[in-house]
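PROTOCOL LOG
Step 1. Enter all chains and additional molecules of the complex.
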Amino acid sequence: GNSVTQMEGPVTLSEEAFLTINCTYTATGYPSLFWYVQYPGEGLQLLLKATKADDKGSNKGFEATYRKETTSFHLEKGSVQVSDSAVYFCALNPSGANSKLTFGKGITLSVRP
Amino acid sequence: GAGVSQSPRYKVAKRGQDVALRCDPISGHVSLFWYQQALGQGPEFLTYFQNEAQLDKSGLPSDRFFAERPEGSVSTLKIQRTQQEDSAVYLCASSLAVSAGGGDTQYFGPGTRLTVL
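Step 2. Run joint prediction.
Step 3. Record the structure below.
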Protein backbone atom coordinates (compact mmCIF):
# COMPACT_ATOMS: atom_id res chain seq x y z
CA GLY A 1 0.00 0.00 0.00
CA ASN A 2 0.89 3.68 -0.06
CA SER A 3 2.82 5.21 2.82
CA VAL A 4 4.73 8.35 3.76
CA THR A 5 7.58 8.47 6.26
CA GLN A 6 8.73 11.70 7.85
CA MET A 7 11.76 12.27 10.01
CA GLU A 8 11.18 12.28 13.75
CA GLY A 9 10.61 15.58 15.48
CA PRO A 10 10.28 18.04 16.97
CA VAL A 11 12.80 20.35 15.32
CA THR A 12 13.99 23.56 16.98
CA LEU A 13 16.04 26.08 15.02
CA SER A 14 17.29 29.59 15.46
CA GLU A 15 16.00 32.29 13.13
CA GLU A 16 17.84 32.39 9.77
CA ALA A 17 19.01 28.78 10.09
CA PHE A 18 18.78 26.35 7.18
CA LEU A 19 15.92 23.88 7.31
CA THR A 20 15.62 20.37 5.90
CA ILE A 21 12.67 18.12 6.71
CA ASN A 22 12.99 14.64 5.24
CA CYS A 23 10.12 12.81 3.57
CA THR A 24 10.19 9.47 1.76
CA TYR A 25 7.30 7.59 0.26
CA THR A 26 6.17 4.19 -0.94
CA ALA A 27 3.65 4.05 -3.77
CA THR A 28 2.99 2.31 -7.05
CA GLY A 29 3.16 4.32 -10.22
CA TYR A 30 3.69 8.03 -10.20
CA PRO A 31 1.98 9.75 -7.26
CA SER A 32 1.64 13.47 -6.77
CA LEU A 33 3.47 14.77 -3.71
CA PHE A 34 2.48 17.55 -1.33
CA TRP A 35 3.64 19.48 1.70
CA TYR A 36 0.87 20.82 3.92
CA VAL A 37 1.42 23.16 6.87
CA GLN A 38 -0.67 23.71 9.98
CA TYR A 39 0.03 26.96 11.80
CA PRO A 40 -0.99 27.21 15.47
CA GLY A 41 -4.76 27.48 15.77
CA GLU A 42 -5.33 27.17 12.04
CA GLY A 43 -6.36 24.46 9.57
CA LEU A 44 -4.20 22.54 7.12
CA GLN A 45 -3.11 24.52 4.12
CA LEU A 46 -1.16 23.54 1.05
CA LEU A 47 2.45 24.76 1.09
CA LEU A 48 3.67 23.30 -2.20
CA LYS A 49 3.26 20.33 -4.52
CA ALA A 50 4.89 18.43 -7.38
CA THR A 51 3.06 16.15 -9.77
CA LYS A 52 5.86 14.40 -11.65
CA ALA A 53 9.46 13.29 -11.24
CA ASP A 54 12.10 16.06 -11.08
CA ASP A 55 9.44 18.74 -10.59
CA LYS A 56 10.30 21.32 -7.95
CA GLY A 57 7.52 22.82 -5.89
CA SER A 58 8.17 26.17 -4.21
CA ASN A 59 6.31 28.68 -2.08
CA LYS A 60 7.16 31.23 0.64
CA GLY A 61 10.87 30.42 0.32
CA PHE A 62 10.29 26.68 0.80
CA GLU A 63 11.29 24.19 -1.89
CA ALA A 64 10.95 20.46 -2.46
CA THR A 65 12.04 18.34 -5.43
CA TYR A 66 10.26 15.15 -6.48
CA ARG A 67 13.03 12.51 -6.60
CA LYS A 68 11.71 9.27 -8.02
CA GLU A 69 15.08 7.49 -7.82
CA THR A 70 15.21 7.98 -4.05
CA THR A 71 11.40 8.14 -3.54
CA SER A 72 11.87 11.38 -1.62
CA PHE A 73 10.36 14.85 -1.37
CA HIS A 74 12.47 16.66 1.21
CA LEU A 75 11.40 20.16 2.27
CA GLU A 76 14.06 22.88 2.46
CA LYS A 77 14.28 26.56 3.31
CA GLY A 78 17.44 28.59 3.30
CA SER A 79 16.59 30.94 6.17
CA VAL A 80 13.71 30.20 8.53
CA GLN A 81 11.70 32.82 10.36
CA VAL A 82 9.83 32.71 13.65
CA SER A 83 6.62 32.81 11.64
CA ASP A 84 7.51 29.44 10.06
CA SER A 85 6.84 27.73 13.39
CA ALA A 86 4.16 25.16 12.58
CA VAL A 87 3.49 21.47 11.97
CA TYR A 88 4.53 20.23 8.52
CA PHE A 89 2.94 17.22 6.81
CA CYS A 90 4.19 15.38 3.75
CA ALA A 91 1.49 13.64 1.72
CA LEU A 92 0.94 11.72 -1.50
CA ASN A 93 -1.97 11.24 -3.89
CA PRO A 94 -1.82 8.07 -6.00
CA SER A 95 -1.50 8.29 -9.72
CA GLY A 96 -4.40 8.00 -12.10
CA ALA A 97 -7.19 9.26 -9.89
CA ASN A 98 -8.22 12.24 -7.85
CA SER A 99 -8.38 10.37 -4.62
CA LYS A 100 -7.41 10.27 -1.00
CA LEU A 101 -4.25 11.76 0.42
CA THR A 102 -1.92 9.59 2.47
CA PHE A 103 -0.14 11.69 5.10
CA GLY A 104 3.00 11.30 7.15
CA LYS A 105 2.85 11.77 10.91
CA GLY A 106 3.89 15.40 10.72
CA ILE A 107 6.78 17.23 12.32
CA THR A 108 6.67 20.24 14.61
CA LEU A 109 9.07 23.05 13.77
CA SER A 110 9.83 25.73 16.35
CA VAL A 111 11.94 28.72 15.33
CA ARG A 112 13.36 30.84 18.12
CA PRO A 113 14.37 34.51 17.69
CA GLY B 1 -17.80 31.40 1.22
CA ALA B 2 -14.12 31.73 0.62
CA GLY B 3 -13.10 28.40 2.05
CA VAL B 4 -14.27 25.11 3.48
CA SER B 5 -16.29 25.55 6.66
CA GLN B 6 -17.11 22.99 9.30
CA SER B 7 -19.47 22.99 12.24
CA PRO B 8 -19.42 22.68 15.11
CA ARG B 9 -15.78 23.51 15.76
CA TYR B 10 -15.86 21.65 19.07
CA LYS B 11 -18.14 18.88 20.22
CA VAL B 12 -18.21 17.08 23.53
CA ALA B 13 -20.29 13.92 23.66
CA LYS B 14 -20.98 11.35 26.31
CA ARG B 15 -20.12 7.80 25.39
CA GLY B 16 -23.03 6.26 23.54
CA GLN B 17 -24.41 9.50 22.11
CA ASP B 18 -24.83 10.09 18.40
CA VAL B 19 -23.11 13.09 16.77
CA ALA B 20 -23.39 14.81 13.40
CA LEU B 21 -20.59 16.87 11.91
CA ARG B 22 -21.22 19.24 9.03
CA CYS B 23 -19.00 20.30 6.13
CA ASP B 24 -19.64 23.10 3.64
CA PRO B 25 -17.17 22.73 0.76
CA ILE B 26 -15.98 25.46 -1.54
CA SER B 27 -18.73 26.29 -4.01
CA GLY B 28 -18.37 24.34 -7.24
CA HIS B 29 -15.99 21.75 -5.84
CA VAL B 30 -16.92 18.30 -7.09
CA SER B 31 -14.87 16.18 -4.70
CA LEU B 32 -15.27 16.06 -0.95
CA PHE B 33 -13.17 14.11 1.53
CA TRP B 34 -13.39 13.33 5.24
CA TYR B 35 -10.27 12.61 7.32
CA GLN B 36 -9.72 11.74 10.97
CA GLN B 37 -6.72 13.18 12.79
CA ALA B 38 -5.72 11.71 16.12
CA LEU B 39 -3.57 13.75 18.47
CA GLY B 40 0.01 13.93 17.25
CA GLN B 41 -0.72 12.05 14.03
CA GLY B 42 -1.33 12.89 10.41
CA PRO B 43 -4.85 12.89 8.99
CA GLU B 44 -6.20 9.51 7.93
CA PHE B 45 -8.71 9.07 5.14
CA LEU B 46 -12.27 8.15 5.99
CA THR B 47 -14.42 8.60 2.88
CA TYR B 48 -14.70 10.37 -0.49
CA PHE B 49 -17.58 11.80 -2.51
CA GLN B 50 -17.74 12.87 -6.10
CA ASN B 51 -20.84 15.06 -6.25
CA GLU B 52 -23.47 13.05 -4.36
CA ALA B 53 -21.88 9.66 -5.02
CA GLN B 54 -19.82 8.09 -2.25
CA LEU B 55 -17.04 6.48 -4.27
CA ASP B 56 -14.78 5.28 -1.48
CA LYS B 57 -15.66 4.55 2.13
CA SER B 58 -12.81 2.18 2.82
CA GLY B 59 -11.45 4.29 5.68
CA LEU B 60 -14.56 4.34 7.84
CA PRO B 61 -13.48 2.49 10.99
CA SER B 62 -16.78 0.79 11.76
CA ASP B 63 -20.43 0.66 10.77
CA ARG B 64 -21.07 3.30 13.43
CA PHE B 65 -19.66 5.85 10.99
CA PHE B 66 -21.87 7.09 8.17
CA ALA B 67 -21.43 9.95 5.72
CA GLU B 68 -23.75 11.52 3.18
CA ARG B 69 -23.79 14.31 0.62
CA PRO B 70 -27.32 14.12 -0.75
CA GLU B 71 -27.29 17.15 -3.05
CA GLY B 72 -23.64 17.09 -3.98
CA SER B 73 -22.75 20.06 -1.81
CA VAL B 74 -22.97 20.00 2.00
CA SER B 75 -21.86 16.78 3.66
CA THR B 76 -22.58 15.30 7.06
CA LEU B 77 -20.47 12.76 8.93
CA LYS B 78 -22.51 10.91 11.52
CA ILE B 79 -21.09 8.79 14.31
CA GLN B 80 -23.51 6.59 16.20
CA ARG B 81 -23.02 5.34 19.75
CA THR B 82 -19.76 7.25 20.16
CA GLN B 83 -16.83 5.60 21.92
CA GLN B 84 -13.80 7.17 23.57
CA GLU B 85 -11.56 6.02 20.72
CA ASP B 86 -13.61 8.24 18.39
CA SER B 87 -12.08 11.32 20.04
CA ALA B 88 -10.14 13.11 17.31
CA VAL B 89 -10.25 16.08 14.95
CA TYR B 90 -12.45 15.41 11.93
CA LEU B 91 -11.30 17.25 8.84
CA CYS B 92 -13.22 17.92 5.66
CA ALA B 93 -11.53 18.81 2.38
CA SER B 94 -12.80 19.65 -1.09
CA SER B 95 -11.24 19.88 -4.53
CA LEU B 96 -12.27 20.87 -8.02
CA ALA B 97 -11.46 17.41 -9.41
CA VAL B 98 -10.67 18.68 -12.89
CA SER B 99 -7.50 16.61 -13.16
CA ALA B 100 -7.40 12.85 -13.53
CA GLY B 101 -3.76 12.75 -12.53
CA GLY B 102 -4.12 13.10 -8.78
CA GLY B 103 -2.53 16.54 -8.62
CA ASP B 104 -5.60 18.48 -7.61
CA THR B 105 -5.19 20.52 -4.46
CA GLN B 106 -7.44 19.57 -1.58
CA TYR B 107 -8.55 22.54 0.52
CA PHE B 108 -9.14 21.77 4.15
CA GLY B 109 -11.61 23.13 6.64
CA PRO B 110 -10.65 24.04 10.23
CA GLY B 111 -11.90 20.71 11.55
CA THR B 112 -14.26 19.63 14.30
CA ARG B 113 -12.61 18.52 17.52
CA LEU B 114 -14.69 15.70 18.99
CA THR B 115 -14.16 14.67 22.59
CA VAL B 116 -16.02 11.63 23.86
CA LEU B 117 -16.20 11.37 27.63
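Step 4. Note key features.
The radius of gyration of chain A is 14 Å.
The interface with chain B takes residues 4, 31-32, 34, 36, 42-46, 49, 51, 89, 91, 93-106 of chain A (CB under 8 Å).
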